[in-house]
Fold:
Amino acid sequence: MLEAEPEDAFTLYGVAQEYAKRGQDGDVGRAVEFYDRCIAADPSYCYAYYHKGRVQADAGETKAAVATLREGVAAARKAADGKALGELTSLLDSLT
Structure:
């Protein structure tokens, strides 16, 4: 799927999620890379920010996670996505 549509946000998000599932097995960087590609393809894909922030926080990269989540909060507000906004804000609050 990725080869057929390398800029499809849904596909990029799915690949990121698969890397994220591997956790601390060295795939955190790849997960973040694919979340970034997803966000570049569709900046309103709010859950990419959320899960990127979670991966970063779980890897001990709190400062990066906070920055990601703040970007996600702005994207959720712009997209008027109240559910994503609530989840992003909740995770952000838990880190600050």
Notes: The chain has a mean pLDDT of 89.
